[in-house]
UniProtKB/TrEMBL annotation:
Lineage, highest ranks first: Bacteria, Bacillati, Bacillota, Bacilli, Bacillales
PANTHER family: CARBOHYDRATE DIACID REGULATOR (PTHR33744)
Putative sugar diacid recognition domain: residues covered: 2-132
Organism: Planococcus halocryophilus
Pfam families: Diacid_rec (PF05651), GGDEF_2 (PF17853), HTH_30 (PF13556)
Domain PucR C-terminal helix-turn-helix: 297-354
Protein name per Swiss-Prot or TrEMBL: Sugar diacid utilization regulator SdaR
Family membership: Belongs to the CdaR family.
CdaR GGDEF-like domain span: 138-254
Gene3D superfamilies for this protein: PucR C-terminal helix-turn-helix domain
Length: 357
């Protein structure tokens, strides 16, 4: 069905170019929009006949006595996907309208097609957002969502993974959703907005290596649209466990570094577990472990761990002599009582440095 808003847009846009009066009627013959405002919401009997027959109807001055609420002109059916959705009428001498009537009919059907397809896509996305919201809420699913999941064939043992895309305000979310749908094609399950500047994507999971390649390729495509971060959740074996994948993707964004563009939960899992402790307790831990270390020594220690405790590589990255590095590591040992070269001590100090950042 054609909405009143769409009918008004068709009349306004077409009359500018035609300089003739247009009427758009619904499938019952009621005028939804017209260049003659007094005719709106009145029944157009000729349009009702067209809606019934599906055929174009020409009305001459001689025919007017047979119709109520009708003026001379032409009334044509509007089809969408082979279904009649309305009637378009042009007021005027039928002889003068023959050259333009078909063009007006085709143009109207194109406008209707674009609007209804866009509306259908938007409706599907809104529905997907409601489904995803229920799946991740932690509450029992409604009967409607259960039915939709069944209709989509998602009740099988297919593996799923959640992606959360954090957008900058300048990014076009609609364009990004279209790119996501194109990139994952038949793998996609649902996509939409999880927050104002955040898009969710639930897809059927690939093997880890294949998924990582696809995500790297996706990131390259999306970064041409604008700056963003992608949090990747864990794979789950059932659609009903998607909440676990969603929470993992959320933690990836929350605990990943701000300058990281692609963050896997597996890379921040330990940090996520630790940072769930009260901040005061974490501060006590980092202060106790790193007590007495100045910024220079902390920087040295961080680089030492980044280089997997390789002294030559660490010295090169810090642009210092190896003897200077050895002196600093010994001083760290003396100050903290922890040996950076010892595995267990290194784990404790690395955690303290990471939590401090």
């Amino acid at each position: 069905m054609i909405t009143k808003q769409l009918a008004e847009e068709i009349v306004a846009q077409t009359m500018i170019r035609l300089n003739r009066n247009l009427n758009v009627m619904d499938t019952n013959g009621m005028i939804l929009a017209s260049g003659e405002a007094e005719r709106i919401e009145k029944i157009h009997e000729a349009a009702a006949q067209v809606a019934s027959s599906g055929e174009t109807l020409w009305v001459t001055e001689e025919d007017l006595a047979a119709w109520h609420g009708v003026k001379a002109g032409v009334n044509m059916p509007i089809f969408f996907q082979e279904k009649l959705v309305g009637v378009i009428g042009i007021t005027g001498n039928p002889e003068e309208l023959k050259e333009i009537s078909t063009l007006v009919q085709l143009t109207t059907e194109m406008m209707v097609h674009q609007s209804l397809v866009t509306s259908h896509i938007e409706w599907n996305r809104k529905r997907n957002e409601l489904i995803f919201d229920e799946l991740t809420s932690g509450n029992p699913l409604s009967a409607a969502v259960h039915e939709r999941i069944s209709q989509m064939g998602l009740g099988s043992t297919t593996s799923f993974v959640t992606l959360l895309i954090e957008l900058k305000k300048s990014s076009s979310s609609r364009r990004i959703i279209e790119q996501l749908e194109s990139h994952f094609n038949d793998q996609i399950v649902v996509t939409g907005h999880s927050q104002l500047n955040e898009i969710f994507l639930l897809v059927e999971s690939d093997e880890p290596a294949k998924l990582e390649r696809k995500l790297s390729s996706l990131l390259h495509v999306l970064q041409q649209t604008g700056s963003m971060r992608i949090g990747v959740g864990i794979a789950v074996d059932s659609i009903f466990d998607v909440r676990n994948s969603y929470l993992a993707a959320r933690n990836a964004l929350d605990f990943g570094k701000l300058d990281q563009s692609l963050i896997y939960f597996k890379d921040v899992e330990l940090m996520a577990l630790l940072k769930r402790n009260p901040p005061a307790e974490l501060n006590k831990f980092t202060s106790r472990i790193l007590a007495g270390l100045n910024d220079s020594l902390c920087q040295t220690l961080t680089m030492y761990f980044t280089c997997n405790k390789n002294s030559a590589e660490t010295a090169s990255c810090l642009n210092i002599h190896r003897h200077t590095l050895s002196y600093r590591l010994k001083k760290i040992h003396d100050v903290t009582g922890l040996n950076p070269s010892d595995f267990q001590d290194a784990v404790v100090m690395h955690l303290a440095l990471t939590l401090r950042d």
